Amino acid sequence: MARQRRALRTTDVFHVVIVMTAILVLIVVAHYIFFSETNTLFTLSDDDLDLPAKRRSPIRRSLNISIVVVVNDESNLEEYKFALDTVRCYALMHNYTLLIVSGHQYHRCRQRDTMFRRHCVVAEILRTTDWVLFIDADIGIVNPTR
């Protein structure tokens, strides 16, 4: 009976330590989220929004940034026309390169599964560009201020 009480007390102490550690972690995270000056998670000024009347990004960029859309069947592009037009507009506004490529035109990517082939194509494109935004053809870009 005495051993059971001792074991019970040890586990109680263990649980208290776990609970106190969890509370401490929550306090640190809450402090970071709500009181950190470098955190921009909850602050958004008008300067951060890309409004039509505001100035656009400069034409010259030090980084080569590409938006990549890999399609498997080019005959389906008409289905994605509206979404691709929004991406095209966004790329023009920010002077990004928009690449709409077929997964079959990269001969080094011989994967049978189309998903693996798409990632191989993006890896090939990454050889010639600094940054890539890889999206599906049905993804559109929305301006929440309109």
TrEMBL record:
The chain crosses the membrane at residues 12-35. Signal peptide: none annotated. It comes from the Eukaryota. Gene3D superfamilies: Spore Coat Polysaccharide Biosynthesis Protein SpsA, Chain A. Keywords: Membrane, Transmembrane, Transmembrane helix. It holds the Pfam family DUF273. PANTHER family: GLYCOSYLTRANSFERASE FAMILY 8 PROTEIN (PTHR31562:SF9), PROTEIN CBG18972 (PTHR31562). This is Glyco_transf_7N domain-containing protein. It comes from Heligmosomoides polygyrus.
